[in-house]
Structures are given as C-alpha cells and as structure tokens.
Amino acid sequence: MTTGPELQLLTDSLRTTMAAATGAKLDAALVDLGWLEMLDEIPDIAIPLVFRMLGETGAHAPVLNDVVLRAAGRAGGTTLPLPYAGHSWVVWERTDQVGTTLDPELPIHRVAAGDPVTSLSNAAGQRALGWWLVGASRAMLSLARQHALDRVQFGRPIASFQAIRHRLAETLVAIEGAEATLQATDESDEFACLLAKAGAGQAALTAARHCQQVLGGIGFTAEHQLHRHVKRSLMLDGLLGSSRELIREAGAILRDKGFAPRLVDL
C-alpha cells in the first residue's frame, strides 16, 4: 500500500527524471527507479502516474512495451509488434533511432505483421495510452491558457473574449470526461478500455484543434511547444487503434450483443 508521502515522493522523482531525460536514457532511468517492479506490484498507481506525466512533460520512453508484455504474461524490458491505425503494425524500439515522419522524436518503425496472441493484452495498453493522451491534452490546454492570459488585443487579454473561453472550456470538459472514464476503467474489461482509449483520443484531438486556434499563428511555428504535443497525440491516437477505428469497433460490438453493458455502477 502506497501512502500519501510515498506517492508524492514518487511523483516528484518521476517529474525530475522526465525533465532531465527522454528516450532511451529515460527508459533506463525508469528501470533504475523500479518501474518494472512498480508495474508488477502497484500497476493501478504506476501506469496512470507514469503515462500521464509522459504526456504532461512531453518526454517519451518505450514503456508501453512493458505494459503490453506484462498483460500478456511476459517479462518486460523488450519490444513486440503493436497494432497501429489502418490495420498495420509497428515496433517501438528501445533505442534513439527515430523512424517516423509524424513524430520525428519517436523510434517507431513499421513492421510487416505482428503476433495475434498479443491482441489479448491490448486492453492494458489502450488504458495506458489513454493516460498518456490525457497528459498531452492537459499540456496543450496549459499552453493555450497561458497564451490567452498573456496575449493582448484591443487593449485586453484575449482570455476575456467569449470565443476563446468557449474553446478552452470545451477542451477542459473533453479532458475531464476522458480522465473520469479512465479512472473508472479496469484493464480486465476489454470493452471499457477500448472506450476509454477512444475517449482519450477524441479529447486529445479536441485539445489540438481548439488550442491551435487559441494560439493562432504562433501555434504553427517550430519555436512553440504546441506542435510537439500535437504530433505526439496524433501518433498515440493511432497506436492500438485510432479513436475513429475504436468507436466503429465499439458500435459493432454493441450491435452484435444487442445491448449496452454496464461499465460503471453509479
């Protein structure tokens, strides 16, 4: 059982580590912090904390491999093919050799095919990616909010304009809804994890769209941090099924079942 002070210490340690390293170096640093042990002993704390913080800080590490491997009953620390949007497969390498044009920071490479056995562990990976997408969405919202407070037009901050407020408010509602869904989801419920990942992907796309509009021209520049979070969100949304594909899959499941299962007891 992790106490409040222990959780705060862990949170501070993770934030400091992610601020100082990313990629393969962060992967090694997380192992030194006991990531694999936490994944076995306190997964319900470790997964939301680590993946949400990856999104908030903009750092990256191939730890999704560990979550999916663990759910499949295999040891972590290696890689495996992961389903990607469009019925394709990718491998997230544990190196710094980049391999994608969508997010040039990530060492993700396309492969011909994957192992169908791992599809049984996709639910845990989808839930973890949902937390990463929520973290990235909050990072985008924070950037847009600060810009709205700082940017002055017609003699007042643009945060006072109703159109700006509506965009920021809609983004916040989408993020809060996605996070609430993730909190109520258990990785053993494949259908709930599917919906949670789809909701988080939709929230990230909403955040990217609205925050881009709030930031205006500066949001398109490489000098601003927004583009990094947008690219990261688009890449993460495609992993283990895009939000569009998962929504379509959920509809097919409901049609076949003939009823909607209870996901949360209110």
Question: Can you offer a commentary on this structure?
Answer:
With 266 residues, the chain is mainly alpha-helical. It has a domain at 119-257: Butyryl-CoA Dehydrogenase, subunit A, domain 3 (Up-down Bundle). The chain contains ten helices and five strands; from the N terminus they run αααααβββαββαααα. It has helices at 4-20, 23-32, 35-41, 43-57, 64-71, 122-150, 162-183, 190-215, 226-238, 243-257; strands at 82-84, 88-92, 108-111, 152-153, 156-157. The strands form two sheets. The protein has a three-stranded antiparallel beta sheet with strand order 1-2-3, with no helix packed on it. A two-stranded antiparallel sheet has the order 4-5. β4 (152-153) and β5 form a beta hairpin. α6 runs antiparallel to α9 and α8 (190-215) packs antiparallel against α10 (243-257). GO terms for molecular function: short-chain fatty acyl-CoA dehydrogenase activity. InterPro entries: AcylCo_DH-like_C (IPR036250), AcylCo_DH/oxidase_C (IPR009075). It comes from Mycobacterium simulans.
